[in-house]
Structure prediction request, 192 residues.
Amino acid sequence: MAYEAQGYSKLIEMEGFSETQLNNHFTLYKGYVTHTNKALDILSTMLKEGKAGSYEYAEVKRRLGWEFNGMRLHELYFGNMGGDGSPDSAAKIKSLIEKQFGSYEDWEKDFKAVGGMRGIGWAILYHDPASDLLVNMWINEHDVAHLAGCTPLLVMDVFEHAYVFDYGLKRPDYIAAFFNNIDWSVVNGRLG
Ligand code: FE
Prediction:
């Protein structure tokens, strides 16, 4: 059965994000859901038809990682917005950040620096359950540089489509608006 796009209309009227900006982004997200389902359907059909070893099968299989991660990262991104931006009530993640980075402010500087990297992609705060380490990562496009076995706790979209309607090329202003709307209770909950 096809996976259905999740709804994030609760984010409309969030300060710093226009309705047009958000609705355009929701539409782009739905495209990833559609194409993830489509790639899975094509692969399943090709397998039944005995075409699993074909060049075409391999290319759709390669594409699946990009489509799937494009879908899931948007869900994590929209899911960690809609809050008041304060980590103060998110005790577990806040203390882990302070333990590792020395202070919340130093972690924030690092995460924002990752978000400001040239290119299109994502900034993600990962937690490694094996070592209990936190790592701020740059994900190129949707699929390059994910940390295997780690949990994405906080996800920030830095493709231009995430902010260009409201902020033009001023990515730092968008990142500041994003930070004002982080729902740290969700981030804390992802820590498990
Ligand atoms: Fe996006």
User: Anything to note?
Assistant: The longest helix spans residues 19-48. Helices lie at 19-48, 55-79, 91-101, 104-115, 164-167, 171-180, 184-190.
